[in-house]
């Protein structure tokens, strides 16, 4: 598509409501496409090579708490004032903020005077600050070693949770979750980021048709829902809040995950059960087995072990498998899709999966995909519904 065609499509959106999420998304997509068509390809390629320096500047700014200081200051603030407040060198602060202003994360109102904007406020929030520490100190520190790792391993995707980019970079044989457990401050950042930012998206119980897909045809003599690897039970509690009937609900996870549940945090009707999903599933014949952000942590061979234990526990033609994860399109994935897949490659040798990849994996395990359900936000998690057929 040439620039004139993109400009025409953007002009057609001018008469529409830009407060509408879909219109805004389309306008943003077209504006990025227009930028790409107008930019000098050589300059764009060079900028890509230097792109890691932008998050490096942000990570330094996080250490000096510059975003918060700029965001909370009444009016413009100078590098000298920021140096006095943070303990950093004035020249260093000026050079860091110059980079961040160029990409829109702070605003330089005049020579060496800075103010915040919406992006400054966003990055100054606790969960996003935590994300910058976690991603830089764990993810980026590992991914920079990926080219060398892949050269030494015949350029094949890592699939072993104890022998991937992170282990290579940190000289460890611990898997990602075990390694993170040895880093208390980064574990706290990880939980802060995951627990708060992901919660802003639309909740699955609000768009997945539970009455028609689970309640209709449900046998009350069987468990309704088993949340496998459910952590502190937020998904299951939300389900119970919306459907407070006296159904059997099970929360399963490893002991170290369950011990964080505080008294009164979950409804007493939710049965808490220690369980490793790589072993036999003890709850048989439930209406639904729910797994949220589990499979993307693991390569196919490990997912097949999990699925084997679920298949033997399920009642053919009755029990449903609900996988709550990203469902990548088979082509033309978004930037977020591609980045998150790289993140999962870095973590435990896992991956985000497309429709075709989900279908292949589930059919190999003896399941049939009933439907792919994707919410309005294409970058949000969907539901893969599958069954063991009679």
What do you see in this structure?
The chain is α/β, with parallel strands linked by helices and 390 residues long. It folds into four domains: 3-49, no CATH class; 51-124, Winged helix-like DNA-binding domain superfamily/Winged helix DNA-binding domain (Arc Repressor Mutant, subunit A, Orthogonal Bundle); 126-198, no CATH class; 202-387, Rossmann fold, CATH 3.40.50. Helix content is 50%, strand content 13%. The chain contains 20 helices and twelve strands. It has helices at 3-13, 21-38, 41-50, 53-63, 66-72, 79-86, 90-102, 118-124, 126-143, 146-152, 165-170, 176-181, 184-197, 204-207, 210-215, 234-242, 255-258, 300-313, 335-346, 355-364; strands at 77-78, 107-110, 113-115, 225-228, 249-253, 270-274, 288-292, 320-325, 327-328, 353-354, 368-373, 382-387. Strands 6-5-4-7-8-12-11 form a seven-stranded mixed sheet. Strand 11 (368-373) and strand 12 form a beta hairpin. The longest helix has 18 residues, at 21-38. The mean pLDDT is 93. Residues 223-368 form the O-methyltransferase C-terminal domain. It comes from Patellaria atrata CBS 101060.
Question: In a few lines, what is going on in this structure?
Answer:
The protein has 390 residues and is of the alpha/beta class.
Summarize the SSE layout with pairings.
Blueprint: H1 3-13, H2 21-38, H3 41-50, H4 53-63, H5 66-72, E1 77-78, H6 79-86, H7 90-102, E2 107-110, E3 113-115, H8 118-124, H9 126-143, H10 146-152, H11 165-170, H12 176-181, H13 184-197, H14 204-207, H15 210-215, E4 225-228, H16 234-242, E5 249-253, H17 255-258, E6 270-274, E7 288-292, H18 300-313, E8 320-325, E9 327-328, H19 335-346, E10 353-354, H20 355-364, E11 368-373, E12 382-387
Parallel strand pairs: 4-5, 4-7, 5-6, 7-8, 9-10
Antiparallel strand pairs: 1-3, 2-3, 8-12, 11-12
Keywords: Methyltransferase, S-adenosyl-L-methionine, Transferase
Pfam family, one: Methyltransf_2
Protein name: Sterigmatocystin 8-O-methyltransferase
